Each structure stands twice: as structure tokens, then as C-alpha cells.
Amino acid sequence: MFSFAASDHIIQSQTLVETIESMYIAFTNQRETMRQNTTCECTACKNMTTLDLKICIHHGTFAVDDMGGGRQELSGQDVILIHRIMKNSVRETTGVHAYAAFTDAALDAIDLPEWRATLKPHQEEVEHIGTVSMGIDNLKVVWEERRQASTFRVAHHKAQIHHTADAPISPATAWDYLTEPEHKRRWMEMKSVARENTVEGRYGVRTQYHCAHEMGDFFEKVVSWHPFEYFSFDSIAPGGVTYLETFEIEQTDDGVRMHVLVNVPAPKNPIKRWMTAKSRTMIQGGMDQTLGHCMAHLADLIREDIASGALKPLEASASDAAG
């Protein structure tokens, strides 16, 4: 499979990395489900667990040639390079069997230096091109880490507040609109949104958002992070009231439905619970109204970005990838 995207279609570099990793996680989860559900003794089914993926990623220039009949073809030295490095010695040299190989050009464009330092270095000699240096991301390790990651989320039936927003975009693009600070500032109508704390240069569990609003500051700490599916916050609103918040992405026939689910737990201490019950009720009511407005505003902003050409709708993005 070969796919491509223009650089200006990528909102966050980390999302590109997580797209690649999530593709492998989906493949491996499906493989494991098939393995557990089959009793077939044929050679193909017996060897099912040996199936794995290798993914190569490069950044460069290319020309798009119109082949007629709605078909397009890419050409150029960088296109040749990415095809050539698919036949490589990564497994033999590094011992890594399931991997994403990022060329140095791709890693320069992604610009996540701390994460880059965790990759295993590798080189390939490509005929007529020369030495191609790359970093190897062990996808089996990524899968194991995702399996052990926190799965905390606010369940639909336990949510005290629940609002949605529909948009004709991909789950990865929806993820960027929900997590990237400038987009978050826009649809939440904040004065500023700052994001800090990374693990190996990437945002995820333990990352904190500081959202400055006219009514006060909100502090959000990420407690679960499952790209393109859901993430959850342990949050503090102005006045010190804490609440739990999950943003969830559901795929639909027309794109995505984005959910926000909130639970405002009562303090365990009975005196504090009695003292804060009224303020909790007031804040919960205000939060319900505010989040309903924010989610509607999010859908409007995405439509405006599509209309202005700043964002491609799902249909156009799918057409590009098919090219």
C-alpha cells in the first residue's frame, strides 16, 4: 500500500506518528482476534502469528502526473527512494520484525527530537542514490505499551454532561482539533491554551493543559490517551471544583461524531460534600451550557475551515490518498 499527503495537510507531527502506530495496533489486534477465534489447523492459520507489518516513511518533493481517467501517479527521486527502501535489511540488522522506518528527511520534518533519540539508527545503501539513514520505531513495543496504558474514561451512562459535534473529517483530523492548543483555544473561546509535559518528546498521559478564560483558569491533566479513539482529563475549574472529562471520537458514514462526556464527582468527605453541593450544582449547570456551546462552535469552525480551503473535507482527503 502506498499513500501520501502534502506537508500542509499535517496539523501536528505527533499525529502522523500516532497514525502509523495506530495502523499497526489495529492490524495486530485483528490478528490476535482471528488467532483466538479460529480452530483451523491449515498451514495458513497455523502461521497467522508470523504475519507482521513493515512501514516506511519519507519526506521529500514529488510531481503529480495526470494519467487520465481520474488516475494520478507520483514521480521524482524521492518517490523512487521510498519504494527502494521497502526492500531493506532492517530485520536482519536490528532484529526488529515489526517496524516503522523513518528516513532522516522524514524525522527532520516531523521535528520531535526527544522521540527521535529513542529510535534505533539504521542505514541502507540505495543504488544510484547512496546511503539513506533512518530511525526504526519498534511497533511491537508500541503495541505492548498501548495494551498496558490507562483506559480511564467517562462512560456514556455515567456522564452528567454529554454533548456532540459532527464533522466531515477523518478521526486523525478530529483528534488534532480536539488536542492541538491553537485549535482548542479557538473552539473553547479561551484567551490562551498552553500545553506542557511530554514523555520522550510526545504529548500523552501526564501532559497538562492550562486554559486561560475570562472567568478564570482551567487546569487539565491527561489521564488516558488513545489516539483517534478517546482521551480523558482530570480537571480543575475556577473555584477549585474538580471534574472528569472524556473526549471520544466515533466514526460515522459522513465523517466523525465527537463526544464530550463529563462527571463532576462529589467529595468523599461528607462535610465537604455538603458545603460544595450547591457550588457543584451551579458549576455543573454552567459547564453543561458552556460545553454545549463549545461543541457547536467546534463544528462551525471546522465547516468554516473547509469552506476557506484551510482544511480538506473527508471526501477530498480520501481521493488524494487513493491517488
CATH class division of the largest domain: Alpha Beta
The termini sit apart by 11 Å
- Can you count the helices? 11
The largest pleated sheet is described as: 7 strands, antiparallel
Strand content: 25-35%
Number of domains: 2
Quaternary structure type: single chain
Listing every helix as H and every strand as E from the N terminus to the C terminus, the arrangement reads: HHEEEHHEHHEEHEHHEEEEEEHH
Sheet/helix structural class: alpha+beta
CATH fold title of the largest domain: Alpha-D-Glucose-1,6-Bisphosphate, Chain A, domain 4
CATH architecture of the largest domain: 2-Layer Sandwich
The backbone outline, from C-alpha atoms, is: globular
Q: How many strands in all?
A: 13
Whole-number mean pLDDT: 88
Helix content: 25-40%
Whole-number radius of gyration? 23 Å
Biggest sheet strand order reads 7-13-12-11-10-9-8
- Low-confidence blocks of residues: 316-323
CATH H-level superfamily title of the largest domain? START domain
Describe this structure in words.
The chain has 323 residues and is an alpha+beta fold. The protein folds into 2 domains: 140 residues, no CATH class; 170 residues, START domain (Alpha-D-Glucose-1,6-Bisphosphate, Chain A, domain 4), CATH 3.30.530. It is built from 11 helices and 13 strands. Strands 7-13-12-11-10-9-8 form a 7-stranded antiparallel beta sheet. It has a 4-stranded mixed beta sheet with strand order 1-4-6-5. A hairpin with a 3-residue loop joins strand 10 and strand 11. The C terminus is likely disordered.
